[in-house]
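A reminder from the course coordinator: this example appears on the midterm review sheet, so study it carefully.

Given structure:
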């Protein structure tokens, strides 16, 4: 069996894919996306080097289109919420086999995507933890809606904008987890659809995933801003430090200069309103940090609460557990060590093995 591995997106994950394919006895050819014209390159390559399937770490509509024309299966791994161009005609090609690291999103796509959509949790690492975090101690608390959210609602009717903004405020009050199903109904979707990219929705039913994406990004961004405010105000009151490593990943510590083993990593799980485990959670655990994450049901599929990490389901519980774990350093370190071991055993390579077993296994 032969495969064409598209490279140039995520080097570490592509290396793991190559090793996994070769372990299965698959002959691997590599296609470097940045060194050629993607529009014609895939077609020319497949013409010269026929293969059984094309694999890419991420979904690319241009690759999907070329594979569909060449009648070759296109396997892609969507490990985070895809960009808006994912929700176009390209995703409906019959050649697609899409592995989605988000249970709720996979379910939605299965309703209308012609290609196969399969849920696959993965230990996908971004290695963001190598960057220097931003200290929020002296930064101002946000008081207004973000410019990005304002831009997302530009062009919609006053009724839609007012309705959505009220839903944002209400959602923030109750904590913000899982925004999308709580705040969007048929009326909102219909109005959003009339104002956002109608010409690109021809192949999708009236209740569009793409419109949900636009609204969910707007809403979830507001919820994250609200949650960051809560953490910021709490830390200022307690005179402890708050650092932001990336979107949705924060660290609370009593030390001036934070290290991975210092304090508590807070993971906000709203993920633009969808489900799934944030990739940053894997990164923190892999580097040996202690994780206190907003609860999602998928967490229990891979981790044991209280052994590999801990969770919170309300702001009251969050404050209680922050207070507890800042004092209990030994307990914190014990859980962090268990979490690191668990992530090492459920790496991205492990997920690729599961994926290949679904495709190539007997």
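Designed residues:
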């Amino acid at each position: 069996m032969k495969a064409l591995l598209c490279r140039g997106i995520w080097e570490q994950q592509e290396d793991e894919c190559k090793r996994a394919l070769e372990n299965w006895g698959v002959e691997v050819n590599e296609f470097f996306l940045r060194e050629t014209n993607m529009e014609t390159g895939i077609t020319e390559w497949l013409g010269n080097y026929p293969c059984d399937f094309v694999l890419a770490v991420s979904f690319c509509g241009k690759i999907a289109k070329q594979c569909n024309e060449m009648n070759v299966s296109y396997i892609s791994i969507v490990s985070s919420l895809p960009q808006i161009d994912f929700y176009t005609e390209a995703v409906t090609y019959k050649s697609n086999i899409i592995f989605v690291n988000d249970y709720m999103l996979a379910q939605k796509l299965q309703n209308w995507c012609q290609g196969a959509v399969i849920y696959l949790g993965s230990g996908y690492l971004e290695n963001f933890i190598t960057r220097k975090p931003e200290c929020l101690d002296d930064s101002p608390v946000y008081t207004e809606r973000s410019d990005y959210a304002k831009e997302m609602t530009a062009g919609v009717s006053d009724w839609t904008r007012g309705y959505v903004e009220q839903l944002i405020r209400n959602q923030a009050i109750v904590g913000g987890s899982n925004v999308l199903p709580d705040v969007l109904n048929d009326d909102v979707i219909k109005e959003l659809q009339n104002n956002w990219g109608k010409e690109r929705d021809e192949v999708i039913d009236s209740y569009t995933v793409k419109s949900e994406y636009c609204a969910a990004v707007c809403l979830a961004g507001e919820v994250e801003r609200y949650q960051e405010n809560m953490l910021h105000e709490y830390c200022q009151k307690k005179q402890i430090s708050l650092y932001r490593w990336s979107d949705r990943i924060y660290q609370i510590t009593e030390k001036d200069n934070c290290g991975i083993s210092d304090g508590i990593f807070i993971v906000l799980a709203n993920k633009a309103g969808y489900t799934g485990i944030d990739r940053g959670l894997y990164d923190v655990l892999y580097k040996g940090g202690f994780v206190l994450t907003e609860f999602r049901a998928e967490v229990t599929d891979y981790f044991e609460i209280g052994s590999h990490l801990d969770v919170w389901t309300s702001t009251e519980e969050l404050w209680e557990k922050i207070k507890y774990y800042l004092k209990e350093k030994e307990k914190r370190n014990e859980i962090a060590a268990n979490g690191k071991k668990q992530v090492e055993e459920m790496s991205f390579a492990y997920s690729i093995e599961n994926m290949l077993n679904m495709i190539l296994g007997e």
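DSSP finds 14 helices and twelve strands in the chain. Residues 209-238 form the longest helix (30 residues).
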